[in-house]
Amino acid sequence: MQRDLVLRARSGDHDAFAALAAGAFDRLHRTARLILRSDELASDAVQEALMAAWLHIRAVRDPDRFDAWLHRLLVHACYREARRVKQREIVEIHMIAPDIRGSGDAQELTAVRDQLERGFQRLTPEQRAVLVIHHYLGLPDVEAALVLDIALGTFKSRLNRASAALRAALEADERTSTVAKESIA
Amino acid sequence: MTGHDDFDRTLADWFEGDARSPAPADGLDRVLDATRRRRPRLAWLAGPGSHWVGEVHDAGSNSGTRSLPRVSLRWSTALILLLVVAALVGGAILVGARLFQPSPLPTGRLGHLAYGLDGDIFVAGWDGRNPVRIADGHADGRTDCQGFWGEGPIWSPDGRHLGYRSGNDCDHSPGTLYLSDPEGHSVASFPATGWLVSWSPDSKRVATWVDFGKTIGIYGLDGVRQTLLTVPPGCGLPGDFDPVWSPDATSLVIAGCIVPVDGRTPGRVPAADPRSHFDIAYSRDGARLAYIAYPESVSLVIAKADGTELRVLAGALTVDNGGGPGAAYEDPVLSPTGDQVAFIWSPARYDLQALDQSSSTYELRAVDIASGTVTTLATASGASPLHPIRFSPEGDQILFSRTDANNDTSLWSVHVDGSDAQLLVPGSGWGDWQTLPAGP
User: Fold this and answer.
1) CB–CB of B197/B181 below 8 Å?
2) Which of B114, B204, B258, B439 has the most C-beta neighbours closer than 10 Å?
3) H helices of B48-117, where?
4) A118 touches chain B (CB under 8 A)
């Protein structure tokens, strides 16, 4: 089905491209939002990726690899958005509404999420992308490397470094939090 | 959150939970609106494609996707093509003297600018002033429909009629082509699909796809279909090309496929014929033409209608012929007298950097055929941001469209010496200048 749509889109059928875009849109947006930590930036990145996909649809020689190609366009678009926002130094913070009736587990979960959010913000866009591609999209390493446009070895080392960097950021956050609690006590 | 498994699981769970927020409801519509009026670029201009995704398997190495086409394996092909290009350049030098003949006098004078904007069609002064909406694309009150648009040429060659299209986003019909007088009074309308409006040289007929890629209808100004022509599969080059009238109006050319209008069997144009190539454009009198030397290369070739008296601006070889860095030429437009050609130039198309379309540089240039002088008229970055549309009848100005990084379009004019660039219409992606008869 998707193969047929890609073939039709490649011959200039915009309806077929619209069907492909509709099928991929939510996934692309979620992926971009995870990497960029902002709905607004994610929307811009997805728009740019899909525009590039339409303009360059004829470059798709293997219809079965359309998804990988589209994700690669998205990752590149995310990098550009991240560079752009870095110049403006704007960071959008996602507020999670506290559940005041929540159990201790729920409060702990919220705390972990906040901690992850802060730690993740400290990573570079490239490190965030490698973690999202690996842990969220769950692509095999070889395919993940292709989507990220890097060599397999680079992907593996970048994944290790990104994981280590996030762990370090979380541990630093935990230490800060402990010191703050001791100070209050 | 100390063990590896815990860390990975926690991270995956966080991603999963964080990704649950829905994407903005209007996001997809905005993307589709932005893409609907843009035509996909041809494969050879489209940068790396899915064939890059996967080469790592074939290569059996971890060199990623950065392996460019192996030029070394195609030296023989490249050598032959270089010899061909050299022969063409040599031919141009040998016959060049004849190119220095004085240019004919202008064949008309500049009239009005017609353009599409937000689904409506407007007619204004040549510089965009005093616009009048002559066709309301949303007269039925449906703002969710695409309305009217005209990719060009909107004006008939004699400047007496306008042709523009409506899309198919509301009722999923193939679309409609409308003909009207300059005041917007409808002359005819008929089902049609495609992009460009193909006026016959005598301004009395319009050719358009009826079933895209398969059948072409020729319609008179009364809206009656005079002929339905069938295009055999695989006749033209791959891509969504519109039919172009031959100067003598005996045939239509669709990127390498010639379709006689008298119903004779269509066929591939012989390789030696300039019409076998891509992006062919004629001067108003049909005496000169320009084309891109695809599928061999992306060079710009300018010739007389019989193929002689060439000037070649050499571009990169296409990927199938070895690829490699080099300039790419596209979108040639001839001046009315055929003494100048405007075109788009861009550098090094076939490296991976082309994937980053935001950093691709494009230039609108013009070449004076007699002297070979090339002048840069406009520069822009992005994905296909510039398109030359038409020379003024006097040949002293060029109308072109521009798309910025936010996909905002605009119409501009510039003199052929690069001076006096003017923004004519913000927000419009295509317009056309009317040619009025010469004289007061």
Assistant:
1) no
2) B114
3) 55-59, 75-95
4) no
